[in-house]
Amino acid sequence: MFHYGVVWANLRYFFENISITQRLLGKQNGYLSTAILFVLFA
Q1: What is the separation of C-alpha 15 from the centre of its chain, rounded to a whole number of angstroms?
Q2: Does residue 30 register a pLDDT over 70?
Q3: pLDDT in tens, 3-16
Q4: Most buried pick, 3, 15, 27, 34, via CB within 10 A?
Q5: CA dihedral sign, ordered 3, 31, 17, 19
Q6: How far lies 24's CA from each of 2, 30, 36, 40, in Å?
Q7: Do the Cβ atoms of 34 and 18 come closer than 8 Å?
Q8: Is 31 or 30 the better-scoring residue by pLDDT?
Q9: Where are the extended beta strands (E) located within 1-42?
Q10: Rounded mean pLDDT, 36-42
């Protein structure tokens, strides 16, 4: 099992990257980039 602290840090980093990407690309493109990031990191 993963250590929960590591998992939480990774999730927080992941969601911060999503919000940054949405700000850079705008809301409309942000959803697409979110899906792409999810596929890449999932």
Answers
A1: 4
A2: no
A3: 777 888 888 888 88
A4: 34
A5: negative
A6: 32, 8, 15, 19
A7: yes
A8: 31
A9: none
A10: 74
